[in-house]
Amino acid sequence: MYTLRWIKGQLELLDQTLLPVKTTYIHCTDWRQVAEAIKMLRVRGAPAIGVAAAYAYVLAAKEAGSDAKLPSLAEKQKQLVSWAEELRSTRPTAINLMWAIDRMNQLLSKLTTNIDSKTQTTDTWNSIVQALEEEAVQIEKEDKALTEAMASAGADIFKGQQHLRIMTHCNAGALATAGIGTALGVIRELYKRGQLERVYADETRPLLQGSRLTTFELMEDKIPVTLQTDNMAAYAMQHGLIDAIIVGADRITAQGDVANKIGTYGVAVLAKYHKIPFYVAAPYSTFDLTLTSGNQIPIEMRDPDEVRYFGNRRTAPADVDVLNPAFDVTPHELIAGIITERGVLRPDFKESIQRMK
Fold it and tell me: What is the CATH classification number for the domain harbouring 25?
């Protein structure tokens, strides 16, 4: 099973909304299919969204190349950048999406520099598309390598410790990346090293990424896992069941504030009270150094029916007002370390993040 795969000029995406009941792949030949998959969480997890967006950019470039209404290179380029902005708007919080699109836009600009903007040569645009495709493939390869490096760096935190019980929130595993995962990558490495006793996975309301995806992944790998509802996290900590917490991230500011799936902040507050170390695992592409504080991170608000319904069954009055933010922000003061492919960042995060650049 794989999260995504680029093959024969199309992107295959695992429809994560159907897991764990069905394993179904979406065969995307149009960038709009990828955009819909990102928006509807058929593909999710910040790193995986970035990789998917890069391939969607390639599909958009191919469409621009075949559109008879766009005869010149300048028109193709303008249309492609416009479509990329539509793609960017699908998930406003996950910075990897913006990072991937910016990277592809920058390459496009570089490729079209010094080329006559009025040229209508099909071969010229085809060579541009080829270069964009190679860049998307490189982004995927980098993501796989980053997750391996993060796993090793994160596991090294726990040298000499045995029978570790780790709590995680949402899904930061292979399903959220092109590789072995961010938080779950560390967990997988600890299990490989014989140090892990059990994982406690939060259910993660309202879309249940913890129960549907994290437990599914870990059980597939035969890693011991216990599922708990979100409001049982405090109980588990109070009763001494948790040694550390590791989560992923969707955006990290220059001072180390972290946006992650809604409910993460509450887990971090509980961890602080119970003196349990709280770690975040994320690659460099998740850092947004243009933001100094977590209150500057845009928070996506989702469909109220995600809360009014549990699956296909309505569990609340049809017209009740709903607050449904997709993410919350954990202040840097609550974080013991940020696990990256370049090592573990420690407080003062403002300084350690700057040194990582």
Answer: 1.20.120.420
Q: Which amino acid is at 112?
A: T
Tell me the whole-structure pTM to 2 decimals.
Answer: 0.92
**Do 230 and 329 lie in a common domain?**
yes
3-state secondary structure of 5: strand
SS3 (DSSP) at 197: strand
| Rg of the chain in Å (alpha carbons) | 21
Question: Residue 228: exposed, middle, or buried by beta-carbon count in 10 A (0-12, 13-18, 19+)?
Answer: middle
227 strand-pairing partners: 201
How far is residue 117's CA from residue 291's CA, in Å, rounded to a whole number? 35
Residue 154 lies in a domain: no
Domain membership of residue 305 (yes or no) is yes
pLDDT tens by residue, 313-331: 999 999 999 999 999 999 9
**Tokens of residue 315, six digits:** 């569990």
Q: What percent of the chain has pLDDT over 90?
A: 92
- Sign of the torsion formed by the C-alpha atoms of 250, 274, 241 and 347: positive
Domain that residue 351 falls in? 160-356
Residue finishing a domain among 98, 117, 147: 147
Asked whether 341 and 177 are in contact (CB, 8 A), the reply is no
Angstrom distance (rounded) from CA 283 to CA 146:
7
- Residue 14: its H or E element: strand 10-14
For the annotated catalytic residues, the residue numbers are 250
- 141 shares its domain with 166: no
Q: How many domains does the chain have?
A: 2
